[in-house]
Every structure is written in C-alpha cells, then in structure tokens.
Design a protein that fits this description.
Elements (H helix, E strand, L loop, with lengths): L2 E4 L14 E4 L2 E8 L12 H18 L7 E8 L5 H9 L8 E6 L9 E8 L1
Length: about 120
C-alpha cells in the first residue's frame, strides 16, 4: 500500500518537514491544526476562535481527501491550558455529531506559535 499526501491551500501550509495529512488505504492521518487563519497565517483571537479555526482547517484537509467530519474516528486535542477545556469542548461539540469520535485531550507545555489549542484527527472512509 502506498501513502498519498493530502494538501490544500484552504488550510495553513506545513511549517516544517511534515505533510498536512497522509492517506494510506482507507485511513487518513491529519497533522495537528492550530487556529491559524490560512489567508493571513495569524492565529485567531482567543481559545474559542482558535478552536473553531483549527476545526475549520481540519475540515478543509478532510474535504481535499473527499471526506468530512463524519469520517473522523479519533481526535487528539492539545491545550496550552487545561482550564480552557470547557470552552474548547463547547466549540468542539458544535462541529461533531453522534456517534462522536474517540478523543484524548491533554495539556502541553507549549504549542507552536504560542497557540492555545491544536487538534489532530484520524479519519476512515
């Protein structure tokens, strides 16, 4: 099985030696998405806006592969501050519907560009 790189200008470009997403077989592995606005490269203002933007970036990557949020089976949410969990959870809940994907949420010491939240997903066709 060969892997296929998924890339779109509708989400921020990779800022290092990695791909926005890689698809192999029926699985798509998307790199973590910050709340970066693709047109400006700037972070959205505040944790709620960054969460929504990160998930919109995820949606754009999935769309490029012909998938949607309903195909997501696992997410990992990285938070700069676990005190923001309830705010992030509220925004996150507006993007996904039942059956919800499996999820992990962890606080990390620091995120790239001093982001407040980063979200990565695994999707299946």
């Amino acid at each position: 099985m060969s892997k296929q790189v998924i890339s779109t200008t509708q989400a921020p470009g990779a800022i290092g030696p990695y791909s926005q997403a890689v698809q192999i077989g029926n699985l798509l592995f998307a790199s973590g998405q910050l709340g970066l606005i693709p047109e400006t490269g700037q972070l959205a203002e505040g944790v709620e806006a960054q969460t929504a933007q990160a998930l919109n970036n995820v949606k754009a990557i999935l769309s490029e592969a012909g998938l949607g949020l309903e195909h997501v089976v696992k997410t990992t949410v990285f938070l700069a501050d676990m005190n923001d969990f309830a705010k992030v959870n509220e925004i996150y809940g507006g993007f996904f519907s039942q059956p919800y994907p499996a999820r992990s949420a962890v606080q990390v010491a620091r995120l790239p560009k001093d982001g407040l939240v980063e979200i990565e997903v695994i999707a299946a066709k």
